[in-house]
Specification:
Largest sheet: 4 strands, antiparallel
Strand content: 5-15%
Distance between the termini: 12 Å
Number of domains: 2
Structural class: alpha+beta
CATH topology of the largest domain: Outer membrane efflux proteins (OEP)
Helix content: 55-70%
CATH superfamily of the largest domain: Outer membrane efflux proteins (OEP)
Oligomer: single chain
Radius of gyration: 36 Å
Number of helices: 12
Amino acid sequence: MQSRRHISKLCRSSASFSAMALIFTGCASFDLKPDATVVTPQAEAIAEAPPPPDWVVPAPDALPTTDWIRAFPDPILIELVDEALRENTNIGSAYARLNAAIARERISGADRLPSVGATAGLSRTEYANSFITDSSNHSLGLNASWEPDLWGRISDGINASELESEAAASDIAGARLSITGQVAQSWFSLIEARLLADLSRRDIETQERALRLTQRRFESGVAGSSDVRLARSSVAQAQALQATREQRLSSLSRQIEILLTRYPASALEAATDLPDLPPLSGAGAPNYILTQRPDLIAAERRLAGQGLQIDLARKALLPSLSLTGSTSAAGRDLSSFFNLDALVANLASNLTAPIFQGGRLRANVDIQEAVLEQQMQSYIGTVLDAYLDVENALDGEARLAERETALRVAVDESLKAEERLELRYTEGLATILQLLDAQTRRLSAEGQLISARAERLQNRVRLHVALGGGAYGDVPPDALPVFLRNQG
């Protein structure tokens, strides 16, 4: 493949995350200028550096789970993802862009072949003088032209179009991966919103029970009217929080329906509980994402294609050769078209070279080189962001687990404290403020625990999306051009 002639394996000489920018700017990974070789001291130092450490203790195959959606024990999520991959408009747009890229590749390939055209004409001459006979003339001709690929300009254009088709196919993989991640995260957020809404409903029941208890104590003369007002205030606050959470629940339901291209009727029903978090078997080495993330693969192909655009701009300064030929016949009746003596044929060759165009062609070379530099800098930033995404997600695995463990303890202790204070308040040994404070602490701890569980699931989704591999970044083979299917 042409991309392999213009881009080397970028991950082989990586030494550390902080040295990535030097890798891409310093080493001779790109062979885009025929008369230039880039070798820097930074590249030599990086090549001699020790291999990078693993992110985590690797699995036996040193790779993460590929079919990671099905690793979550949630059949509804699997159905939603499959539906989104079939129906989402962003994925449909990516397929359309691939079809356009394939069509442009066919156009580029046509430049290797001769172009043939046909001409036909009909003329009629009538005279005012009756002594001169009117006449009709017919003409028919064929013309052909062909440009030999003297300097490889046509081949460069074809290879650049092929690389763009590969990049467009990677864009489809990126769209699939992105939509899969969005559906999974939105689904977990929807379940979280339902659990929080259920928690608010239970909290309202608790607050109303405390209000009834306070009213009885007030009627018995044990509590004052301020206690009743505080209890009523707590009920109203719980009702306000429930309204907010119900609104978020409806909004998240519509958000998922938009991803599925369903009519946003907020009719999607959330599951009753969050699924268990699958075990993480491994995440591979840092260079894994360079060969798996669709956005990086697409950017690599476009970098190689831009290198060819520089070659094309330079070859526009060279002479071009074109061969043309035509044949024609004319007469007053169609029978002359089949008479060899009436045929006229010519063959010509033209060699043209630019002499003076006001610096336009050389300026185009400068433009293409500047575009390559822009794409290079963007690519380096994308690689570093990808590493950051993976590192943050892996760091979140441990931190979020610690948070969930601590919150479980907080929920258990706050629930026992609330039960004890409610009993003491009934006995008149505690104040309403103590009871309300205990209820608030328990409610806050339960809500945070629900959110922490959802965040751990969403963080796992972010990790798999950041790694970029797996079944949800694979494009169905029947949607790809033949040369991409053969690439495997």
